[in-house]
Amino acid sequence: MTEIHSTRLEGLDLARFIAFVGMVIINFKIAMGADDGAGILSLLTIAIEGRAAATFVTLAGIGLGLAALRSEYSQTVIVTLKRAVFLFVIGLLNSLIFDADILHYYALYFLFGVMMLTTKSRWLLASIVLLNVVFVAMVLAFDYDLGWNWDDYSYTDLWTPAGFIRNLFFNGWHPVIPWLGFLLFGIALSRISLSQASTQNRLILFGAVAFVSAEFVGTNLTNILFSIHPELAVFATTAPVPPMPLYMIAGLGVASFIVGFCLRFASLFSRIGIMRIVTPAGRQTLTLYIAHILIGMGVLEGLGMLGEQNLSTAVMAALLFCLIATVYALLWSRYFKRGPIEAIMRKVAG
Fold this sequence. Notes:
Residues 243-349 form the DUF418 domain. By secondary structure, this protein is mainly alpha-helical. It is 74% helix and 1% strand. A two-stranded antiparallel ribbon has the order 1-2. The longest helix is centred in the middle third of the chain and has 32 residues, at 197-228.
């Protein structure tokens, strides 16, 4: 029983590592002003754009749900609220450097998520549907482009009260509506038998079917809606901006597939030595996320590589950073149980 539990946790750490690598690739691509271009590399980055972050949020939901199962409910609520405040503060500081920060959104996901920890799974899934319906209604009722300068992806009134709330809940990079749905999905997943191979296989199958179906429907529906009126095509997009329902389905599919795959093959990866290398990085993703902005993008800025770079350069820079980050995490883990930021959060918020 102990071995199964350990493998399960290692599988989730591997999933966090994969999601982190995907996020670094996309964020470096944005920061370096790399165009999508053409070819396999372009298709790969388009496929992971928004999906890696969605997987990251889903994993946070799984972690929150598992914490609730292991601890007293009141204690889980108190610790989660403290950590939400911590993430909100460092996320806002991070936003001063990188507009596409996800941490301050995370704080709100946790705030609302912890309120729904005792909600039955069927109502969590119903809430995911409702979030998508509300978002579509908001797009119809309000101007989604308000605040955005799409030429350089800057948000002109982010630091005004109205702009900040609009960005946080509606038209930011990872708006609470509907992105909270990924966290709720993770909470629901935490309640099923994740350690069983049959469950892992179903997650893999569901994830693959959901992703492929969303992309297939999106491609065909886009053409139909565009022929009716060009502006209607946005409602069939699977791109993360704006996060329409088909994007959410694709994101949930990728998250499900990665979680199931990593849990299913954690033992195999452990036997061939992969887990020993990547698990420390998977347990320090908060530290590494901040490092890829402060250090990674800082180095790129010093080298004059922020803007007008090609896609291959951006991807190579991201992979090089991830390699260095993995080596760092491996060395750090020999002396310390937690990463630097994780240790600070633990001390401050429990």
